[in-house]
Specification:
eight-stranded antiparallel beta barrel; 11 strands; mainly beta
Length: 189
């Protein structure tokens, strides 16, 4: 009887341990925040933000979580220095006054063990608006080099940049919709 009670207690404790949130730190070498926007309906302009950081908490049993990703707007990199400078100006990001953008998501949608979407807010250019990032890939694995679990995926959304007060070029025919992609890998802490 005593062994049965001890076994049941250990089983209950293991279930409680499974239900606790697990913390992860975003690994900057495998995390990229990029965007795409059409250029006069012909080609796609792309850029990325080279400096980013963040944290993730996931409770796989409860199907809940929280993520925060910050990216520095002065680190925008299109591969064209003149364009980078223009994007940092008041016409676009106004990075002198608004040096960071932040996505905070706290509403996770799961399909089994896989995160399918994260809903939260994006703060950019001094304004905060709701955004849902949809997962096109999500996986957790034991990293053989780090000897720790890593979770991540590709998340994206199409946002209307005018909601954040960024409307430069609309009169010229630039679209207001921007494809935002956050490719993230985070290491269990």
């Amino acid at each position: 009887m005593k062994k049965l009670l001890i076994g049941a207690s250990l089983a209950a404790l293991s279930l409680v341990a499974l239900a606790e949130p697990v913390s992860y730190s975003i690994e900057p070498n495998h995390t990229f925040v990029t965007y795409e926007i059409q250029h006069f309906g012909t080609s796609t302009n792309r850029g990325r933000f080279d400096k980013k950081e963040g944290t993730v908490q996931v409770d796989h049993a409860a199907k809940t979580g929280k993520v925060e990703v910050k990216f520095e707007l002065p680190s925008v990199n299109t591969g064209v220095a003149l364009m980078d400078k223009h994007l940092q100006s008041a016409d676009f990001f106004d990075s002198a006054n608004f040096p960071t953008a932040t996505f905070v998501g706290d509403q996770f949608t799961f399909d089994g063990d896989k995160v399918k979407s994260v809903t939260g807010t994006l703060t950019l250019h001094g304004k905060t608006n709701p955004v849902t990032l949809n997962a096109t890939h999500f996986n957790c694995y034991d990293n053989p080099m780090l000897k720790r679990q890593v979770c991540g995926g590709d998340f994206d959304a199409v946002i209307d940049r005018t909601q954040w007060g960024i409307d430069y070029g609309l009169a010229y025919g630039f679209p207001k919709n921007v494809h935002l992609i956050i490719q993230v890998e985070a290491v269990r802490q």
